[in-house]
Amino acid sequence: MKFSLADDVRNIASMINNKLQMGVDLDKVVFIRSYGSKTKAYARTFSLPSQWRYVLETNTLYIVEVISERYDSLSCQDKAYVLTHELMHIPSNMSGGLRNHSYSGFSKLKHLLRKLEIPKEC
Prior knowledge:
The chain has 122 residues and is an alpha+beta fold. Helix content is 34%, strand content 18%. It has one domain: Zincin-like, CATH 3.30.2010.10.
């Protein structure tokens, strides 16, 4: 499997974070694109444990990975849906933990997406 930084994904996530006022500090989130993954997921969010942050001397708290084979061919609206979903896993207090799917925001996801003015090309 190969990885690369995903600045295009960061830009879309920044737009979502700002327009929906999610309160996620994206300076503490790294966005990567993976190639060659066998997962059926479009994207995944990981929390970087405090021990790793200490050893690696980093302020990064979260990693959002998009799976190139599944994510890249999506429409802009679907990319926005996937990234909004992944950002919802990150609590606004940036505690290092992850929200699970029982968080109430996930049930409001489609309603939130109506607030976004998603460009035709992203």
